[in-house]
Fold this sequence. Notes:
Elements: H1 5-14, H2 18-25, E1 29-34, H3 40-55, E2 62-66, H4 69-81, E3 90-94, H5 95-107, E4 120-121, H6 124-138, H7 145-158, H8 166-169, H9 172-187, E5 190-191, H10 195-206, H11 208-217, E6 220-223, H12 230-242, E7 247-252, H13 266-273, E8 278-283, E9 285-286, H14 291-301, E10 308-309, E11 317-323, H15 327-344, E12 352-356, H16 359-372, E13 376-378, H17 390-408, H18 413-425, H19 431-448, H20 455-473, H21 482-490, H22 501-504, E14 514-518, H23 519-522, E15 527-533, H24 549-563, E16 566-575, H25 581-591
Parallel strand pairs: 1-7, 1-8, 2-3, 2-6, 4-5, 6-7, 9-10, 11-16, 12-14, 12-15, 13-14, 15-16
The protein binds adenosine-5'-triphosphate.
Amino acid sequence: MSSSVPLLRAIDELSANPEQLAAVQESGHCVVLAGPGSGKTKTLTTAMARALAEDVADPRGVACITYNNECAIELETRLGRLGVATGDRAFMGTVHGFALSQVIAPYARCVPVGLTADFRVATRGESRAAVETAYAIAIGGIDDPHRRWSFASEKRRRDVDRSRPEWRGRNPGLATFVEAYESELRRQGLIDFDDMPLLAYRMIKEHAWIRDALRARFPVLFVDEYQDLGYALHELVLLLCFGGGIRLFAVGDADQSIYGFTGANPELLESLTARRDVRTIRLRFNYRSGGRIVRASLGALGEERDYREVAGAPEGELTFWSVPLGHCMQAQAVADTVIPKLVEKGIALDEVAVLYRAAYLGDKVALALKQAGIPFVRTDGNAIVRRSSRLARFIEDCARWVVGGWRNAEPRFGRLLGQALTLVYGRHASDHEEQRLSDQLMGFLQATIGFSGSTHEWLHRFDRELIAGWRASARNLEQEWDVCAEMIGNTDPARNLDIPLPHFAGRVEGTGRVSLSTLHSAKGREFDAVVMYGVNASDFPSERDKRSATSLREARRLFYVGVTRPRKELSLVFQEHHHSPWVIELYARSQG
Ligand SMILES: Nc1ncnc2c1ncn2[C@@H]1O[C@H](COP(=O)(O)OP(=O)(O)OP(=O)(O)O)[C@@H](O)[C@H]1O
């Protein structure tokens, strides 16, 4: 086995930082704990590429679990730069994807877990109906079943191992409700999203041979963003790594834990560091941001940490924009003043991100930018392209190919075909299937080169000419074909949402696109300039955040995640005399 030139270069780059290098070379269980911009992801991808090149012999491979598909796609891109293509030797995906494709799909028919051979994933409507049926059977009464279900599903996510006394000992009524719900789903040959890691856990726990099979395939397990992954992943890690002989390499930052509402708990990450069989490595340098931004971020967090910028890094700029009125006027100021000022300073549009708390605020910024003629790409829940959807990203890539035409042929057709094969057939397709898919895809792309209609019309054709057939022949369990219909809805000309295809494809001559993102979706990303919009007293924290100490703490961490995204410029936009109290702390800390 030999290391590729890009990998050797990456290891060389890390060698000036002894902690990063030690992590990459570690051969036992290793947890890297570090703040924003400290190179956690860079260390993880380098360690993964090194393991594949030097420790793990072909055909064995490594698995990497991360929070969502968006993070998985980002990791794939970074690994691609290190010469590692994902495929049979490297699984990269969410804990749900891992559970479904690596445990349930291959082994469920060999063990009694109550799944039919043709089980499928329930739609939202089917899940809701099952909740109502289960409520009538297990609880009864006139309360709202869905309200009670929110408590039951929290218990379901938390008490992963049902053989422990807590399952029946704590809230037995909720346990019965969960069991009735699951039986109702199984009766219809269905599983839901939360079932995936739970079933995988049960299968691995009850059948040691499945654990052995996984170890044979993936002797090393990488976990990114550990603090956001919740109890099911943690229990799987305990079982596979500390009970099943798989080596663990995990990275995370408890200060960036922002998914408490899905069951994440930053203490799970910390509990790993207390183990004697785990080497904990802490990184201290922030390679991303200048000293002023690093200090400001500690004010944003409201706690002391010994993080430092690297020697010689430029200080970075902080600017505060106070606007007379609320969100709409603040959005206008972002479009008319803040972004043009950044451009004057020489920052490219595609290096600017506008961050906000919720997608409806993104609508206001999007409208203001549209009116100002500033191109943008959204990565929030109201975006045309759902960034966490592989299908949506594939469609966007096809649009880029079509708009670029033969001359650009970018992305390469081979890459598009690889994406399509994964979407339709999962990992394995026969030669005949590959040939047929290749013909269909090339036929469609060729036929729409130079397409003069709008994005909406092109998406309609995509849906009709490709998706309809693929939906019928697909073997991939994680199907998301409805995403294309969703994109058609998101470009509805009747609601003035349609845009020219080159805009959708990100091919607008001479300009990049500003990124519009919720704070949650901005996690793990970095930009030269970040504009935080709507930093008002009523938004940071909101009334809802103030309901409990835990939610207040999480809101503050969310603010911290936003403040730690820029390399050079952080701009905060808020209403005059109504700024968030955290802005004062941030400013005060940035000065000293
Ligand atoms: N040793 C290093 N030398 C130079 N640059 C580095 C080094 N380590 C990391 N970087 C750079 O620092 C930036 C942040 O790295 P990375 O995204 O891996 O950090 P992170 O810890 O995952 O951040 P976050 O938690 O904020 O998402 C990247 O641009 C990366 O290339």
